[in-house]
Amino acid sequence: MAVLKVKFTKTNRDKLAQVLWILNWVSVVTGVILFSLGLFLKVEINKRWELMAERDLHYVPNMLIATGLIACGINFLGGKICYDCADTTKFLRWKLLMLPYVICTFFFTFCILVGALMCYGMRGELEEALDLGLRDAMRYYKDTDTPGRCFLKRTVDLLQIQFQCCGNFGFRDWFQIQWISNRYLDMSRREVVARLRSNVEGKYLMDGVPFSCCNINSPRPCIQHQITNSSAHFNYEYQTEELNLWRKGCRQALLEYYTHIMQSIGFTVLIIWLFELSVLTGVRYLQTSLENVLRQGDPDSESDGWLLENSFVETARSNFNIIKSLGKCNQIDTANNGDPNINVPSTAYYGPDNLPSKQIPMAS
């Protein structure tokens, strides 16, 4: 029994072909949108690539870019096919290609769905990449004279100012690393030398943060040094004071930023997937209805169209049998301990009776 069978008149078939021709051209535009979304995501990741650990995060934008390009090609071909299908005689040139086209388009729409789900599933890998990347960027913040790292101070400062964040998880992360280079430390001062010697690794650690952590909305001048020392500042209590530093960690700020982008892209891709699925459904109805017209031999007669000629169970069983029969064709009879030649009689043997009749004379 056919699945979702619909009866079409000639007028209905012609209108369906015209509507699908228009929708396929709209689908070309959606392919351009997919390509643009993938390109946009790729650019956004590359903007802050130095703040991320070495992770393969480009597979999602690359998937969207490739899907968008394929969408343009497939839907352009689909528009041409639907335009010709308005005339039953022109359908003959596409008859053999229609079913492979429908199958390929089905797998293509499945790839669009996978791309949308990948946008939602990228958060975990992105969070890990940001955590490790920001940790390394803060560690190399002071290396302004080291080739390959001299730009990290400017990058981290701009990040903290733009996203109004401080540190990796919070401003206390700066207390655990040396973010001032030794070239800017006065080694003649006793307290500086004592602080360096007090640390096992010889690092100059202090309860201070870079200037970019200061909250510009605070009415009080920024307190970025001796943050935990209440007596070092007038009318200041570390435990109860509302700090004039950014409270949010940069990992959380960046994760929220990229999550918003990926959720928006994922939702847009899901809408495109639903649209492509509806176009594919219409093309399938057009294909089956036109094939039934050819069987009847009357181009003006009514014809049935369907999604599947048999039920889902019967279709799955027939496809499984086809795959099973193909597997049997590639099998070799390996009975009797797996030797395919075990039952083949030998036509030659070695022995005195098998020697050549003409002997070569021995040398005297």
From TrEMBL:
Keywords: Membrane, Transmembrane, Transmembrane helix. It holds the Pfam family Tetraspanin. One of its GO terms (cellular component) is plasma membrane. The chain crosses the membrane at residues 20-40, 60-78, 98-120. It is a multi-pass membrane protein. GO terms for biological process: visual perception. It is found in: Membrane. InterPro entries: Peripherin/rom-1, Peripherin_LEL, Tetraspanin/Peripherin, Tetraspanin_EC2_sf. Its main location: membrane. Belongs to the PRPH2/ROM1 family. This is Peripherin 2-like a.
